[in-house]
Amino acid sequence: MLMVEEHIISPDLAENDKSAVIVKKDKTISIMINEEDHIRIQTICDDLNLEYAYSVANEIDDLLESSLEYAFNTKLGYLTSCPTNTGTGMRASVMMHLPALSQLGYMDELYKISSQIGIAIRGIYGERTEALGNIYQISNQLTLGRTESNIIENVSGLTKDAISKEIKAREILQKKLGIKLEDKIFRSIGTLENSRVMSSAEAMSHLSNIKMGIEMNYIDKLDLRAIEQLMIGIQPAHQSIMYKSDDVENRDINRATYIRETLEKLRGGMNCELQ
Predict the structure, then answer these.
(1) Has 251 been labeled as part of a binding site?
(2) Any known ligand binding at 66?
(3) Cα separations (Å) of 252 from 106, 170, 231, 232, 245?
(4) Closest CA to 87 of 31, 32, 141, 159
(5) Quick one: which of 50, 159, 203, 248 has the fewest CB in 10 Å?
(6) 225 is in an annotated binding site
(7) 106 touches 164 (CB < 8 A)
């Protein structure tokens, strides 16, 4: 599950004992074997650069197709094991942090818009998962009858719309809550700096507040990237490996310790390499 938490492989692949994965050293490329389809090529990049991610995946796909015979139909496109992937076989996904939309209850509007254009909004690890830390995954639902450029355009369009709505929602939160919003953000810092037992769900909620606080310039002494790394480091599999324990109660205690120690280093202005 360690690689699931780092978004290198899917939960489906992790549960299949007759599967495999090839991973690039920097973890930006992974090729999954026997996931929901026989081969799944995944490329990851920063920001909303779907065109680049697609170009890398397409280059790998061409290389594989030169040696493998893919099932292909001139009318339907690529014939995949999972029917919803039939066509181009491509899914474009974007991970988004949408705390203000979530807190104001505005996500329903975004769900409605996305369903009308064939786009799904799922939890942090995709299908059947929760949006821990208000992190959502936006991706196309179907590939049949759509070109790669159509898919990228649609997902990018909804993502930009979500960004615009989130910015406006944060402005509403500021006007609605005033000092209470700042208080909520700094209470999250205080809670994480002093807690002795912490579940991953509660930690993600507090880290989401802190991440939003950094992005809204309430906090200037914590590094955004370090907080994002911390969001991964606190997950169950990472904690189990870090502390060599699968006991849930001990894991929650260890997680609280890990968060306190990490925040102390970050708040002290020290260079902190997260595990």
Answers:
(1) no
(2) no
(3) 31, 31, 14, 15, 11
(4) 141
(5) 248
(6) no
(7) no
Answer yes or no: CATH 1.10.8 is held by domain 83-177. no
Name the nearest CA neighbour of 131 among 121, 139, 140, 141.
121
Largest CA distance in the chain: 61
pTM, entire model? 0.91
90 in Cβ contact with 152 (< 8 Å): no
What residues contact 45, with CB distance under 8 A and at least 6 apart? 28, 52, 53, 56
Q: Say whether pLDDT at 274 is over 50.
A: no
Tell me, what amino acid is at 250? N
40 annotated as a binding-site residue: yes
Q: What is the reported pLDDT for 269?
A: 53
* 133 labeled part of a ligand binding site: no
196 is annotated as contributing to ligand binding: no
**Residue 60 — φ and ψ, nearest 5°?**
-65, -40
Does the annotation flag 126 for ligand binding? Answer: yes
Note the pLDDT of residue 200. 96
Using left for φ > 0, alpha for ψ between -120 and 50, and beta otherwise, residue 90 falls in: beta
Label residue 128 by pLDDT band (50, 70, 90): confident
146 assigned ligand-binding residue: no
Helix (H) or strand (E) holding 40: strand 39-43
DSSP state of 24: -
**Residues 72-101, mean pLDDT to the nearest whole number:** 95
27 and 44 in contact (C-beta within 8 Å)? yes
